[in-house]
Design goal:
The chain has 132 residues and is α+β, with helices and mostly antiparallel strands. The chain has 4 helices and 4 strands.
C-alpha cells in the first residue's frame, strides 16, 4: 500500500492511502481502529474498499486529521472523480471543525487549496498519470 501524508499548514493532516490489496488489510484495520471505528465499521470499510472506483475518508477531529483511501480505479476520469469526492469530505470536516460555512467563498477557497496541496501526492500515486 502506498501511503503519503500531507500537512495542511499545521491546521489539518491528510494521510492518502492507495494501491492496497488483501495483504494490507491489517494495516488498514489498524488505521481505522486508530480513528475510532468499531470492528463492525472496519469490516464494512474493508468490504467497500475491495471494489474498484471507490474511496473512503475517515476523520478524527480531535487529531485534526483525515485519512483518504482510494481503491484501484478503472480510468483516469474515475480516479479524478474519486479523489475529488474524498477531498470534499476532508473539506467538509475542516469546515465543521473551524466553523466555516459550507458553500461559502471561504469553503470554496479551502477546496481549491486542498486540491493544490494534494496535487503532488495525487500525481505520485495516480496510476494513470504516467509516473508509475
Amino acid at each position: 500500500m502506498i501511503q503519503d501524508y500531507k500537512d495542511i499548514d499545521g491546521y489539518w493532516g491528510v494521510l492518502f492511502c492507495y494501491g492496497y490489496d488483501e495483504r494490507d488489510s491489517e494495516d488498514i484495520e489498524a488505521i481505522l481502529d486508530n480513528f475510532g471505528l468499531s470492528a463492525h465499521k472496519v469490516a464494512e470499510a474493508l468490504n467497500i474498499l475491495r471494489n474498484p472506483n471507490t474511496g473512503m475518508t475517515v476523520t478524527q477531529p480531535r487529531l485534526r486529521m483525515s485519512v483518504v483511501f482510494i481503491s484501484m480505479a478503472t480510468s483516469r476520469g474515475q480516479w479524478v472523480d474519486t479523489i475529488m469526492h474524498e477531498l470534499d469530505h476532508v473539506q467538509a470536516s475542516m469546515c465543521d471543525y473551524y466553523n466555516i460555512e459550507k458553500g461559502s467563498e471561504e469553503a470554496a477557497y479551502l477546496q481549491g487549496y486542498l486540491a493544490r496541496q494534494a496535487t503532488p501526492i495525487i500525481e505520485e500515486i495516480c496510476p494513470f498519470c504516467g509516473r508509475r
